[in-house]
Design goal:
The protein is an alpha/beta fold. 42% of the residues lie in helices and 21% in strands.
């Protein structure tokens, strides 16, 4: 566990950022940056009442002056960048939003972390960056490359169960409204893990990460979305509720199966504990 550090978390009011904040707060001094004033205020009050040393401000990582103000005033030892535009379909509609947050925002954080002597920068990424098929994935891939070339660390993982806007809360909303639960394609598969597990592994990855690493959490085997839907429907049926499943077709930018690594990355990856670590230094020496 990381202890005794000054840690800044961008996007700290989101699903990953808030859980990361909660896990780190008992052992460190924390500062958060987020555009959601209500969620950030609630989280800060929750943790202050528990006696933790936390603070933060409302702000957007797209604004370089905001990022500089946050970094220069807190002077962190470590930054976790959890702020992102993360949804595939909305970013197909508005690509510039993904560029401004995922690329320019990450650049701003990197720039001022270097300027003010931050010792380590950890970027939260996604399996959609490995072989990008959508705008969101492509912008996260650019962010990974910037972070790698700056000598910092990215942590890449798949879908997080019960995170905001993810599949299970979406289905729960459909069930509550008396609607069928929707599946885009019967062949769809995704890697999934819990928020708590993901954040515990992110912290461990931050401890072991070396300059230029892209670290993949071991996500186990991918889950068939249709199988998950059938399990939920079966559980609801036990309570006398009949919920149909509706196939709606794939959305723009989606893929049937996601890869955690590209073919090139697989050549550079080494397994260490619960991680696959991608770094060019791991390529075999040519004789």
């Amino acid at each position: 566990m990381i202890e005794g550090k000054k840690i800044m978390v961008s996007g700290f009011a989101g699903s990953i950022g808030s859980e990361l904040f909660r896990q780190l707060a008992p052992y460190n001094e924390l500062y958060g940056l987020d555009i959601d004033e209500t969620r950030m205020f609630d989280l800060l009050e929750e943790l202050k009442l528990k006696g933790h040393k936390v603070s933060g401000r409302v702000g957007d990582i797209k604004a370089h002056s905001t990022v500089e103000d946050a970094v220069s005033s807190f002077m962190p030892d470590l930054i976790f960048n959890c702020a992102a535009r993360k949804h595939v379909t909305p970013m197909e509609w508005n690509p510039m939003e993904a560029v401004q947050t995922n690329v320019i925002g990450t650049y701003n954080l990197l720039k001022y972390s270097k300027k003010y002597g931050v010792k380590k920068f950890v970027n939260i990424s996604t399996d959609k960056a490995s072989v990008p098929n959508c705008v969101m994935g492509a912008t996260k891939r650019v962010a990974e490359l910037m972070v790698k070339n700056a000598g910092e660390v990215s942590v890449r993982f798949g879908n997080v169960l019960n995170s905001r806007g993810s599949l299970l809360p979406f289905w729960q909303g459909q069930i509550d409204r008396g609607e069928p639960i929707t599946v885009t394609d019967v062949r769809m598969e995704r890697y999934m893990m819990s928020t708590t597990e993901a954040c515990s592994l992110v912290i461990k990855a931050a401890e072991i990460g070396e300059p230029g690493d892209i670290i993949l959490l071991d996500m186990g085997k991918p889950v068939k979305i249709m199988d998950l839907a059938h399990k939920i429907v079966a559980e609801l049926k036990k309570d006398g509720r009949e919920v149909p499943i509706e196939i709606i077709g794939m959305r723009k930018g989606e893929v049937l199966k996601e890869r955690l690594m590209s073919e090139e990355e697989e050549k550079m990856a080494v397994k260490k504990e619960q991680f696959h670590i991608i770094n060019e230094k791991n390529l075999p020496t040519m004789i």
